[in-house]
Specification:
Length: about 800
Amino acid sequence: EKDLAVDLMDVLATLEDTLAEDLNSNSVDVMRWRDVIRSYADALAVLSNIDRGGNKSLAVSTLTKLEDLTSAHSDKISESLTQSSFDAAVHDGIKRHIEEAYYSSMTTGLNIARQSGYFSGFDASVSNARAAEDIFQRMNRRASVAGDPLFPSPAFRHYQALIQCWCECLRGRYSDDSSNEALVELDELPHVRAHRLLSELEKRHDDGQSVDGAIYSDLMWAWSQLSNWPGVYKQQKFMFSVDGIEDLLHRTMGRYEEGKVHFHDRNTVTKMFDMCFRYNSQLQPRSREDLMNRSLNLLGDMEGWYQSSGGKLAQPSDFTFALVLKSVANSGVESSSSIAQSLLTKMQDFGQQPTQRHYLAVMRAYSRLGPKGDVKEPQKVEEILRNVIEQYQNNNDVKPTTALYTACIAAYGGSRKYNSVSKVMELFLELQILYKETGDKDFMPDGQLYSVVIDAISQARSNDDASLRFAIKLLDEMETRHDAGELELGPNRFSYTNILRAISRMKEPDIDFAEDLVRRMEDRSERMDYNGVRPDSVTYTALIQVLSVNGQSVDRAVGWLKEMERKHRAGNEACKPNRVTFTALINCWRRSGKPEAGKEAERLVERMEKEFEEGDLDMKPDDFVYASACDAWARSKSPDKAERTWGLYRRMKRHYRDGNLEAKPNNVVIGSIIKACGYTRGSEETKQRALKVLLQCMKELKTNKDLDASPMIYRVLLNAVKALVADDSKRRPITGTIFETACRDGKVDSSVLMALENAQPELYLKLPHEAQEKIIPSGWSRNITTAAN
């Protein structure tokens, strides 16, 4: 093909020479002009699909030669047309060839890039779009020149080609820090430019000529990529891209109803709806219920179009239902499981039979019901598995594959109430028997199954560490069988990390074993050159969480953080420490009991703040970070710990005001500050400084609407005042104010009464007799909830 391109240019050069000779002898007729122009168009069509260095510039120079040729001899071409008996047909043919030449020139860069997959990056894609824009505008300008009928205006496919070039610039794989900076510096964002082109095309065709709806699909795809570009979405409302895609879909179908849009490919409408469904299923907004409802409403619209078109357009496919089911499963709302079940029935109404991925989505819908991290009804997930098994046994329908068993075991593993080693092993052994009896690879236990089994067993309720020992035994089995050649059973990093997390939940974790487990991963990844088992930030963070349980291993935890940082500096991005890592290390210091614990914890917070402000989003400090650091100070013996915790709180408030919503002040943080005040020891001057902080906390509780004091807060306030103010006459008005506020807020429980009795006995004795007997008036406790306490 590359040789052909060279030959073509030689042929064109020869053609130009012979044409010049014939022009001198006035022997060029209209058919010759048509053939010459067609030769240039055909050459450009070939060049636009051959990846030969410089082909893009070669295509542009060839187009320029065609423009110069037709402009220089437009009079002679027009004259020859008037002498021809079939001038209209030939004239239309010449215009069509010129249109083809412009189209080929515009699509050269995109065609060649698609042969290798993509452009090299954002800059290359923008450069291509600008080159196509330049050719498009050249076509526009020449078409507007009076008396030059040989140059047609841009047609539908020229608009579509340019829209595709601009849309390509937003491909998610091009997004990185530098490309986002470059994106926002453009005079016009790519999708906005594409929108303007579409509107311009619509105006040109509003005279009755309809447009192929495929062009709307191209623009919808660009909108679906915007979630990869923080340079765009950070400046918009969260759901703006979802709205944009849906608006385009409704706009397309509205114009179709008006007869202004047609669909050359009847599958285009299904593709457009699926694009909306896919986008809704991928986003993770604060409320996934909204995206579920959007998908269900769109599915209703799709059904309407399918019925009104007599089944010609918008037919939901099994892929359509898989995407809608994913949005439903992701929502986590109470009704999602029943909605998912009804969608399986609806599939069959459209002649679609549920497959493994549809059943998996329904299983996941059940697995996401209940409080976060706790599967409410894993039995429902098992019912789906049993139903699939029954159907398979009766008519060899959908197989009860390893993936379905894995999902069922994961559901039990995620249930605090129903998880048990016996249930998990029952399902695990059942699948093993099924594989042994059939030899069907669809039933073969794989690494993912083993990892889920290990996770489920390690989380199962047990009075001893038997479940953990069994999980470790399974891990050993995975390693042994993998080393023996069963490559599908190779453990991955999640297998090891799940065991580390199980160890971190023990009261007395085996720290040495946890560290050996990570070294085992490191050794295995190096020995086998297998990245899938190489420790990453999640692994090292889980290890630091193990070390933080008793706080006696803080030096070892610091050492592992340094190891992570060393590997990250050496180029291993997967080992980059993040907020969870630093929170775990802060907890190590918090529980260490070392004199420097508060100072070291605050130093880690300062580092997180600095790196976040410099653009590292993985280091964004949240309320857990500040709460842990404040508690580290509160547990220390430092005489200025009250002031240091207050300083952390003020920084937390500043970050929250500056837009870090995850740093929202809460009761845990303010409670740690109060505790720091109450446990301050030292001179009277030291206690006075702590009392000043305590009074600031009381003021903050009164004025900050983000804080809602619980009985625990009032209890620690009373205890702190008792510890800081020895003089009863000075203490009485403070304790009185605290207790009156607790009564007024309806937050008095027995612990508050006991704290009052300890802090101010004479005030306590003035309470109604029932209160002294711990029978609390309903008005005093009306706003107490378990969560608040």
